[in-house]
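Handout, page 2. Input:
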Amino acid sequence: MNFTIESKEIYSPELFNGKTLLAVENGRVSTLGEVAGAKRLLVPGYRLVPGLVEVQINGAFGEDFTDDPTAIWRVGARLPELGITTFLPTVITSPLETVHLAMDTWMTGPPVGYTGARIPGLHLEGPFLNPQKKGAHNPKYLRTPTISDIQNWDPQHGVRLVTLAPELPDAVQLIEALSARGVVVSAGHSQASLVEARAGFAAGILCGTHLFNAMPPLGHREPGLAGALLDEKHLFTGLIVDGIHVAPEMVRLTWRMKAPDRLVLVTDAMAALGVPGGEYVLAGAHVRVDEKSARLADGTLAGSILKPLDAVYNLQQYARCSFASALTCFTRNPAQMLRLETVGRVQPGSPADMLLLDEENRLAATMVGGELVYSAPWAKFNWDENTIA
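Output:
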């Protein structure tokens, strides 16, 4: 359906530019304005912004992608309820058979009639991680990097992002091979020194996974992986801004080093996202979830239950930045990191993946490809029966 939206204001793509009209044709934004002959959707009380791009999410709505990789499309169908329009299902350290099942599920494609979030590929977080920084990953399935293990790990077979520890034996060989195939390689769950980190960067690492978590503390004599990621201006870095994984002061430090275009917000959310707390599973491990966090029995953090828009609001508060700047870290920046050049922004030629937010920045509605796939019960929209002359 082709139509024009008249909203309070439009985020397109880096700042609120005072425009209020946007035309959608064939599932894409055709112009920041209106087109003749199109119906008009009137949403004057709402702000129109790009859909969120999530590169690290382990599951949601009671389902875990590592425990059951076939859940990716079921969860994807509901993620627009949280404002996510593009995401990478994250499969953490597990038997390689689980990885292959996830790849097969992605290549098979969505079920008939699927209208959920787009899935441009998978994020494989492991199994090539440092056992000393395993976090909630099962050490039983950690592996030493081997080229034979990554056959068909490429975007064509669903592998878009891989997290590994660059200091492991032969890790540089894997980084070079994956990068040459077009896979984005991220450093994480690592004990890498500054020298080892930079060797990984030279081999093709483009980003860091959940900065500060599962890596040595930032040191003044040995900055380690965290210091190397902050120092290299061209590298992206993911950050979990829930007030638990990283202190607000460190969020501000990261903002000063990586803003505006290299900081990527992630939730690292697990199965309990979007459902009540209790006992859940993360890659076979039992996780206790309360109103704030998800933890293993020994207290180790096991992902989060952070809602994506809450991450944006938290960043705005902690970094003392504008909402528009914070939103960029969950839209344009992760899309650029994944080389999805038209995603994560509202501009002519981009997919019409958009959110409507009210004056309190609550999610009123989500569109994917110009189709309204989620509407909050309290949201109100009006179609102008008169087409534009």
